[in-house]
């Protein structure tokens, strides 16, 4: 279940589906909203492709995109962006969502096109929260790194990421949205992993 399954290849990047996503598929099969899930899935892939193609533009290829129930992760080759490049790469994902939201306004208004608009706006805005290592947090680190340098900026951004992680976790528990609880755990661990190479221990 915790394995990832390769489901295709886009623009030279392998696309994987994490095993836990299959649980979501099974749940959706029960509730009968397969089209909604397929749409969400496509939107997440396009968001990650935005990051991957921007990163490639700056010379850092992406090996794989893996889809989890709480979102996608683009695994890039080791390398360092300049702060401006990091802002462009981090913003490229939400920018894809805002472009798709804009494009959907040209479609006739149906329940599906309204959902498409809402998902894209939601995903774009949510990812801009400064909860490092989410996109907005990466943009925050890029700004901080101009003042504090890469190492200090990463640690400060990771602190913010973990504060947001607690907020996600508590909000998730209070509202019984377990995706939000998982996201909180994921962001907390991912922030710790980003700061760990610089000697930060939690
Ligand atoms: Zn993103």
Nutshell version of this structure?
This protein has 202 residues and is α+β, with helices and mostly antiparallel strands. It has 2 domains: 1-128, no CATH class; 130-202, no CATH class. The chain has helices spanning 19-31, 34-57, 83-104, 111-127, 135-175, 178-195; strands at residues 4-10, 13-18, 62-68, 71-76.
Throw out a few tags for this protein.
202 residues, alpha+beta, four-stranded mixed beta sheet, 6 helices, globular, binds zinc ion
How is this structure best described in words?
- With 202 residues, the protein is of the alpha+beta class.
- It folds into two domains: 1-128, no CATH class; 130-202, no CATH class.
- Helix content is 67%, strand content 13%.
- It is built from six helices and four strands.
- It has helices at 19-31, 34-57, 83-104, 111-127, 135-175, 178-195; strands at residues 4-10, 13-18, 62-68, 71-76.
- The protein has a four-stranded mixed β-sheet.
- Helix 2 runs antiparallel to helix 3, helix 2 packs across helix 4 and helix 3 packs antiparallel against helix 4 (111-127).
- The chain starts with a strand and ends in a 7-residue tail after the last helix.
- The mean pLDDT is 88.
């Amino acid at each position: 279940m915790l394995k990832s399954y390769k489901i295709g290849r886009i623009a030279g990047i392998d696309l994987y589906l994490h095993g836990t996503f299959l649980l979501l598929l099974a749940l959706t099969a029960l509730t009968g909203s397969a089209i909604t899930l397929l749409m969400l899935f496509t939107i997440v892939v396009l968001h990650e492709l935005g990051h991957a193609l921007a990163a490639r533009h700056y010379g850092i290829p992406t090996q794989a995109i893996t889809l989890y129930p709480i979102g996608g992760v683009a695994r890039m080759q080791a390398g360092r962006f300049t702060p401006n490049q990091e802002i462009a790469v981090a913003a490229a994902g939400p920018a894809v969502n805002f472009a798709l939201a804009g494009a959907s306004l040209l479609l006739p208004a149906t329940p599906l096109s309204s959902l498409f608009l809402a998902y894209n706006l939601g995903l774009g805005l949510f990812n801009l929260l400064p909860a490092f290592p989410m996109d907005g947090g990466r943009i925050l680190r890029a700004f901080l790194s101009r003042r504090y340098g890469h190492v200090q900026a990463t640690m400060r951004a990771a602190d913010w990421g973990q504060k947001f992680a607690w907020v996600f976790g508590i909000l998730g528990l209070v509202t019984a949205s377990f995706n939000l609880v998982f996201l909180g755990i994921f962001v907390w661990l991912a922030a710790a992993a980003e700061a760990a190479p610089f000697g930060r221990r939690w």
